[in-house]
UniProtKB/TrEMBL annotation:
Stretch forming the signal peptide: none
The organism of origin for this protein: Moraxella nonliquefaciens
One GO CC term, this protein: cytosol
GO biological process, one term: glycolate biosynthetic process
Job of this protein: Specifically catalyzes the dephosphorylation of 2-phosphoglycolate. Is involved in the dissimilation of the intracellular 2-phosphoglycolate formed during the DNA repair of 3'-phosphoglycolate ends, a major class of DNA lesions induced by oxidative stress.
Pfam families referenced in this protein's UniProt entry, alphabetically: HAD_2
Reaction catalyzed: 2-phosphoglycolate + H2O = glycolate + phosphate
Pathway note: Organic acid metabolism; glycolate biosynthesis; glycolate from 2-phosphoglycolate: step 1/1
Protein name: Phosphoglycolate phosphatase
């Protein structure tokens, strides 16, 4: 595996559950949305298992849990987006991420970001984390017509940066990340500490699994 990675030049990262822990803020957004309908808070434990397929699916899962009609999904989603925009104070990077990203850049890797989070929230998050100059390409969940686990966002990044997929690595925490990478023909590396619907990420058969971001960086 290490020999294969010697040929890599591009590392594509997922965001939520991989670089940042955003569940506290996402939970606040979901719970405030539910409050509009007179419903009890869902809480972080539930929301953590709902994250990963984009904000619409997150809200859909919350509505189902709260026994609310799905014909109100669009309205509920707009409420969530409005509330979540005011909930940005609790999101933090995982241990060692900023240092690890700097080390990868210093070693000559090109870094990109591919997330299912709506694009409107990415500039503020990247600014708050101090990562505005880190990623050569940033793709959000609504940048293209499709999102992970569809491979198109990863293929778009490779095409935009002029990098062959054989020279790219996808790093994520969920089966959506791993499946997208496999569908794109990209080497996949997984982190165990993120959000994966309560399932061990090893079940998605990534090419490598790490418990710590620093260990992943050292491996690369």
């Amino acid at each position: 595996m290490k020999g294969i990675l010697m040929k890599k030049s591009l590392i594509i990262f997922d965001l939520d559950g991989t670089l940042i822990d955003s569940v506290p803020d996402l939970t606040d957004g979901v719970d405030k949305m539910l409050a509009h309908f007179g419903k009890s808070p869902a809480g972080m434990k539930r929301v953590r298992n709902w994250v990963g397929n984009g904000s619409v699916t997150l809200v859909e899962r919350a509505l189902i849990w709260a026994n609310l009609p799905l014909d109100g999904l669009h309205h509920a989603h707009e409420l969530f987006l409005t509330e979540y925009a005011t909930c940005q104070s609790k999101t933090v990077e995982y241990d060692g991420v900023t240092d690890g990203l700097k080390r990868l850049l210093a070693h000559g890797f090109t870094l990109a970001l591919c997330t299912n989070k709506p694009s409107r929230f990415l500039p503020d998050i990247l600014t708050n984390m101090g990562w505005t100059d880190v990623f050569a390409c940033v793709v959000g969940g609504d940048t293209l017509p499709t999102k992970k686990p569809n491979p198109d966002p990863l293929l778009h990044i490779c095409h935009t940066l002029g990098v062959n997929t054989s020279h790219a690595v996808m790093v994520g925490d969920s089966k959506n990340d791993i499946l997208a990478g496999k569908n794109a023909g990209i080497t996949t590396l997984a982190l165990t500490y993120g959000y994966n619907y309560g399932e061990p990420i090893i079940q998605s058969h990534p090419d490598g699994v790490f418990d710590d971001f620093g260990d992943l960086v050292a491996f690369l």
